[in-house]
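User: Can you write out an input/output pair for a complex, sequences first and structure second?

Assistant: Here is one pair. Inputs:
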Amino acid sequence: MTEQKPNSFRNQPDERGHFGQFGGRYVAETLMPLILDLEREYTAAKKDPAFKAEFDDLLAHYVGRPSPMYFAPRLTEELGGAQVWFKRDELNHTGAHKINNCVGQILLAIRMGKTRIIAETGAGQHGVATATVCARFGLPCTIFMGATDVARQAPNVFRMKLLGAEVVPVTSGAATLKDAMNEALRHWVANVHDTFYIIGTAAGPHPYPELVRDFQSVIGKEAREQLLERTGRLPDLLVAAIGGGSNAIGLFHPFLDDADVKMLGVEAAGHGLDKQHAASLAGGFPGILHGNKTYLLQDEDGQIAEAHSISAGLDYPGIGPEHAWLKETGRVEYTSITDMEALEGFKLLCRTEGIIPALEPSHAIAAVAKVAPTMPKDAIICANLCGRGDKDIFTVAEALGVEM
Amino acid sequence: MTRFQTAFAANRPALVCFITAGDGDTAANLDALVEGGADVIELGMPFTDPMADGPAIQAANLRSLGAGTKTADVLRMATDFRERHPTIPLVLMGYANPMVRRGPEWFADAAASAGVDGVICVDLAPEEDIDLGPALRAKGISPIRLATPTTDAARLPTVLDGSSGFLYYVSVAGITGKQEAALESIEENVARIRQSTDLPIVVGFGVRRPDQAEAIARVADGVVVGSAFVDLIGEHGNHAPQFLKELTTSLANAVHGARK
């Protein structure tokens, strides 16, 4: 662990779960006692060497960490500017960074004596990762998924079922991720005594944003060590895609106090910021939803808007509260990338490096393609390749007008 | 005496009726509830993401928003209600985001001008009271809190601190309109809470029928019915008032006569 300085960007949240004005615990009273229990249990787990040892062991031998740090020579050459490096979290078991968090949370669930697991999922990546750890530990698992997403993500629905999970299609609202999260919260309220809710991103009521960040920070800790070892110095710029923001906060957090390391979070601009999109920081306002105060896409009455992104994993009208705070403090810069730009990023990485990325990190790749040419050749960019693209080939084919 | 004190006077349990604003003809629906014998009105503010509500009230929220209901409309409905019914306590119930969107002071001021007596904010834990509570109290509006089967003795003082008007005991760990709580557990919990507060204790979630309401009214100071009314509005639309009045009458008779 890096030593914490008094003016550290790394000592949030405060004891009430706030990152500046963001975060907090905005849940129905039925859930409050459980949220407080979870906080106590997580505080204890953090100090318990046995918990850390089990987490590290599973990450090493089940997930396959550390993930490689890869220098992308042909992409770098094509962009003609800064060196581009990728943190290869798409090589994890289950194909994305989501598993890091699920391993940590299921260990907490077991520690708390909970015997059932629930989770929400959009594209199905978090659902698959949750179903995976539930199978590994033999706990029954119920995944809430919008009926619209169930229809368009059939392969992941089948994966979850193979892993033994029950998949509940949610028909309320627009039947996507936001509604799946509402339904998971409703189910949790009615089953608090035996059920643990594995939230998939660094959002929700405290302590979720903190604990998800901590579990995902393995990405940034490894990246920091690997880059120091391979390049002899810290990178100039970190880039990561943001839906809820768990892969980005996982990469950024261990570097927050390295003043010379700039960071760029990439939101999904969907059809464009003046049309339907999922860029909560660029197009939203602070508000309260799903347990935390953060930037939300909403109208003047506080009604939540439907988000849109070609990437189902970024298709959410909110963002983790720590990102809202990092934006306001100016420590991290945020930008956005449209569906079309992301598709170009997707194709670019396939063509130059022989890596098929998920549509989520394709947003980060597109941002790298914009910024790398403006930087000197000795500069170093590290982008998080947080998921592999197998799940997205049907979506991409459709967007490119290819019949399969 | 505040309107709440009048409504919860003496040894007469109160009937608290909930409907969602903007779902059907709200003014006519509210009048039907009052004519049927409602003692307190809870007017739901529609929200896109009603996380603590079951299918009935979720559907009501969607119908209301689908009909174009805005916050300004809800406040106008409250103002009109207050003009027609000067003595019936009126509570706005809903979720935090629509309430704080223009700032807590704006909301408290608008609610006070509309003649609102209390506000129930479902997802504003007492720990986050500062987002709304001080603004409401400054305008003389009661922040009404929820206690649940999971609110244990250690936590109860946190819930009670800063709450006024009445205390809403949620009889089931769950969402609105679904399961029915065992009477024994309600009796036990109400008795437990009563040791810690002088506030009237009303019981809600899952109460639909006069016989349930009567049994609860024997041990609590009031009974909340919501989903049953909302279902009638969903079924009968603009013809709902006569059905609402019938159900309210039978519920009011049951509740008011429970301790005789």
